[in-house]
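hey so i finally got around to running the thing on that chain from the lab meeting. sorry it took forever, my laptop kept dying and i had to restart like 3 times. anyway pasting the input first so we r on the same page abt which one it is
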Amino acid sequence: MNLLDSVAQYHTPFVVRDRSSGRVTALNNTADCAGPVARSSLRYVLSDDLTRLCADLAYSKGAGSVACADLLHAPAQMLWMEWCNGPWRNALQEYGFPLIPTGSQWVGRRGAWVRATPDGRRGLVRTFWSVSAADVLASSVEAYFDFDTESGEEPKPVDGKRGTRVVDAERPDDDVLGRCFRFRYEHSWSEYYGAAGLTSEVSFALWRHAVGTIAMDIPMLLSFFLLLATRNGLPQRRQAFERLNLRRRQSGKAPLLDHVEVTAPLLPEYRDYRCNAPVVGRRSPRLHHVRGHLVRRGSQIFWRVPHLRGSARSGVVRSRTVTWTFDRAAAGRAH
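ok and heres what got predicted. didnt touch it at all, straight out
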């Protein structure tokens, strides 16, 4: 079952009990979002190949050095996107992000729910992940964004409640995440932790952990938005379940939600060239991995995909460059 349906069918409230006072508090979580998520006008399910492509664009260290906020917008006022954790986790490991081996956030599926202004330039994001088939969690932290934020300014929250900046220390001056996004606790979680009387050390540790459940998803969301905005878009196939849902209703089961399956565009193939001829002249470099690189030139983005390069004796993989073109109106939109 897709994470989308698990969220939409989730009705168990998230309740915590204070061990000292015995007080019970209900916190906003998956059950509170089930109805709104199900009513999202666009619901995307990413294929594994598209997940890998988005992860390459999101986490390759050479991919973040391009200013592309003017090309980004949410394609609907309320939308959902989800992906499988397997290829996403593998990309994080490949690009050197430390993972907690027993962390439940690395299993199952992940999703992001976006509520945006009509122009798609400002909005809120909340993320979800499946711990098991019957257990789905929502992040206690939400992010708001404003893609029209200028350098040195603060993004404008849609509801006036401001948050905290998260920045990539390696790209502090060229970082869409740090410039256009801010993070904050969802209201009920903010009140709960605020009344708990925590020390500053414990409060900061909780905050870092909570932000970690959502911040890593934002680059994936941005990569997906960027690919959707290209002139040719992404291959899409709408999934509807009329017959299946008729049988599910007859047997007393909740219907499955229609969604759009999105796959990666067909990229130029590369082959493994092997040569038995002796190497002449300067010695070739050993076989090595080259990280992806993203370059912006006007209304086009050039992506040199991650590839192997090195000695012909070991096999040389020819590198590939993928070009994505955007409408000039979008490319020329002011920040």
